[in-house]
Amino acid sequence: MGRDSLKIALILSLAFNLAVVGAFAYGYARRPAPGGFGPPPGLAPGDSFGGRCSLFARQIGIPHERAVRFSHVMADSSEGMRGLRVSLQKARGELVELFGVPEPDEKAIMAKVDEIAAIQGQLEKKLVTRLLGVSSTLEPGERERFMREIRCRCIPLDRCVPKGPKGARKESEVGR
After folding, report:
1. pLDDT at residue 118 greater than cutoff 90
2. Per the domain annotation, does 43 fall within a domain?
3. DSSP string, 123-160
4. How many domains, in total, are found in the chain?
5. Which domain holds residue 46?
6. Global pTM?
7. What would the mean pLDDT of 130-144 be, rounded to a whole number?
8. What Cα–Cα distance (Å) separates residue 62 from each residue in 68, 119, 134, 147?
């Protein structure tokens, strides 16, 4: 082996060693809590949303005991929606491809639009089923806060201004 070959081998070896050290450092930084394996602390069992269900449950004031059930209902309904979302994305991609040809076939495009509308309808039905299932696990006050959050997230025209206490006529009176 020539001197240049040894230099190249040494540089490659150093680069590989640095990559291994970097991978260990990343793994060490992202490790679970001491003495624990699995999801980070604070996640409800079965919370496939990475803790978002637990956070959402806390935001609307659901006690931990029922937050676990809330997370399970959300996760169960999410599984059924995932396949539909993939189908919808695929159908939209196919629609774009239909438009991309030099002379688009209007009948094929309209058939694809109908297919997309059908998938969206199925998604809406699954979403309503999810809302009904989740709202059945909530008490009246929690249900009201839950629906307010849903409106804020789903209806862009709703400005999501927090409601003040009864009798407050303007924002400056809230908190008095």
Report:
1. yes
2. yes
3. HHHHHHHHHHHHHTTS-HHHHHHHHHHHHHHH-TTS--
4. 1
5. 33-161
6. 0.53
7. 84
8. 10, 32, 12, 13
